Batch of 3 targets.
Target 1
Amino acid sequence: MAAGQIQQMSDDGFSTNKWGLGPRLPVPEGAHSDQGGGLMRYRSLGILGLFGLLFLLIISGSWYTIDQTQRGVLLRNGAFVEVEQPGLHFKLPLIESVYKIDVQTHTRTYGTGQETMEAYSADQQPAHLRVSVTFHVAPDKAQEMYNRFAGDMEAAIPPYHAAHEPRGSPKRRSVRGVS
């Protein structure tokens, strides 16, 4: 007798529990004596539905788009495979990943607000500077950008350090030959 079977049918058309004890109730014509079968059917449908949902999530995460201002670095298990051009692409789920690198022109301005850049002229007059850096990643250098900086454009720009050195310090640097 199956473990999920709660009641069984006797020879005379009455049901008893699996130990043969308890009240004998009439079983309607065409009814199944296995009361747990419906539960098992719903459970198997639920598990099948869960696997179907998981499958759809994996497949839907396999498509990706690279914009016109980007290049994609395709990685398989973390290793470089190729540079992807703009458009719709497919990747192997859970094995491949894509890192997008922006190739449009960016401008960073230093010397505004709290970060002031100071310099001194040849006659030791102070000057407060504002410096703008304009940069972009060449589309054919996307692989090199990823390899050197993991695609982080902020890491590619040397950090600005406002070193406030006193006048006459031997660590002063000359700018364009003026010391």
Note: The CA atoms of residues 66 and 87 lie 5 Å apart.
Target 2
Amino acid sequence: MSTTVSRGQRMAGRAVLVVLHRYLGLMTAGFLLIAGLTGSLLAWNAELDVLINPKLFHVAAPGPEVPVLDALALRRAVVERYPGAEVVSVPLTVDGRHPVAFFLQAGRDPVTGEIPPLANDQIFIDLYTAAVVGERKWGDIRQGMINFMPFVYRLHYSLAQEPMGKSIFGVIALLWAVNGFVGLYLTFPSVPRGLSLCCSVDRKLWFSRWQAAWKLRVRGGFYQLNFDLHRAGGLWFWAMLLVVAWSAVRFNLPRVYDPVMNAVFAHQDIPSPQAVAPPQSNAVIGWEQARAVGRGQTEPVRSCRKEPSPNPTLRAGRPWHGRWSRAYQISIVRQGLGVIGGAARQQLSFVDYLEEICSNVDTLEAYVYKAIEKNLWLSGVEYSLFASNITLKWQIEDFLGKI
């Protein structure tokens, strides 16, 4: 009698999981469809934006000898045209073929102290005449097709409902990951009466029955084929789908992802950056001087690279990890140099680690040599491209092959 009750409970529990799997799948399907379609369009984000709005992204020189205006001169023209807005980011390079896009931020009213909304926050400037080519409220689909691709971007990342939409996507991703485990369990065959998975013979029998879930039965009719495609397809791509779902949890719901991963896997605690006191000097440098200082600091890094790193951007007034907001930041957005701050933190962590192992009397000298060999940037920026004798041969061959 007890065996019958136990089997009945298992069957009832399995039926509940089938219903749960079905409705979780229906719930997540709509969101995954939105994310998939918008993500497919975003693979050609820039190209589609140019195709839809050619007037915003093409400009012709007035004459063969007419030079382009300086990027900071273009910024001054924007500030003069929009006195109630702030321009805190300047692309420092122009190619002569495309207008320069500036993003505006609403400034605080000095009388009321309020921040009035801007009618448009992305301005396209002719780099020869400083005339306004076009403008839009980025992502506002009410302005029409001019904002189609920015709206697709917002829809993909946050359902165009910041910040609530991002949390919704995170919850959907979490349900998707849980539903993956539910579906995996439902593919397992039930254990017949008298069968024990502790026995190797019974275990082989169980796995032989589970193998049927990985196969397609093409002669069983449409319903059977459709069911097998769902079950077998889910098993074939289960690991990949779990990675996608769980990574979506990381991007949208880190307050759930981080505790789970920290509890399951070993991790390294990253200390919070210490706030830096602002300088005592009241001297304020302008944009031109900030650009000169920034270029002087980044030129050694850029000169050590085989390929040029275009599109440097100068930003101002942005607090970063507790540092004073009166600082300028210059970044180079290509081939990893756009994460200069992250790379710098990693290098500082390595220096602390190197100091720790060097102070340990049990550390072997060969281990220290190996650590330095893989981090030759310790000797200076000009040595950051050198390699050990082990990898020097193929690097030279790779370099000569590109000449």
Note: The chain has a mean pLDDT of 76.
Target 3
Amino acid sequence: MFIGHFGLGLGLKRVAPAVSLGTLFLAVQFVDLLWPTLLLLGIEHVEISPGITNVVPLHFVDYPISHSLLTMLGWGVLFSAVCWVVSKSRTGAIVCGLAVVSHWLLDLLMHRPDLPLYPGESPLFGLGLWNSLPATLAIETTMFAAGVWIYTRTTRSLDRTGSIGFWSLIAFLAVVYLSSILGPPPPSVDAVAWDGSGAMAAHRLGLLGRQASHRELASAHLSQPPHGLPVACGPGGAQLRIKVGVRQLGPAHAIRQAEINLLPFHSEFIGRRRIWIE
């Protein structure tokens, strides 16, 4: 699976809005970025074998460090720990760790039986959807489209750069995906490894950086209290964060919905009250 992983990364922005899209992409693709390096070092092995599946012409001989379920759980814990140290966000760290492990589950759908549970003499698993091009396209494009939809509902562009940069990234990923499954087999294993670890990754990160700095959460314009209405502190250091939106009922009428979130100092939700002000 390729573009489906990115679809999951886009969709996870709704679950972990404080985590950057670049970090989510890195999490869902972490082992696929690790794998080319292990190929170049001769630790893991792949062979180009056209016809081994109807979609991907690669025979994954062994990749126990990057793609076994046990080691992927370890990579997920490590990635989660780093995220927590950097951000101090428990939710973000958990989501990123699970995103790393999700790679094995999604690959399980597509691969022929070549995914190990653990390094060594492990049984191999895979449901083999790569044997059907229509099924592969249906699953991956649906996941990707759903992720794009969720991301565009969760964030909004601040200017034309945020809009053009985002859709350029989406178009780039779509072109890379279609060329990889509809194009000719790669010329060599080294080409597979260098392509996965070099220019393509740098280009994706560059597009991510350009668009991310020009987008914000769709609810960000409601995240600050209105002018003249301070944030108050409640018992035990709790914070009252007030969000106000306006719904127009007619030319001369408006109703303000003031949504008050009661949050303790450590930012865990403990209560919500909704009031209406005419």
Note: Residues 142 and 272 are 35 Å apart (CA to CA).
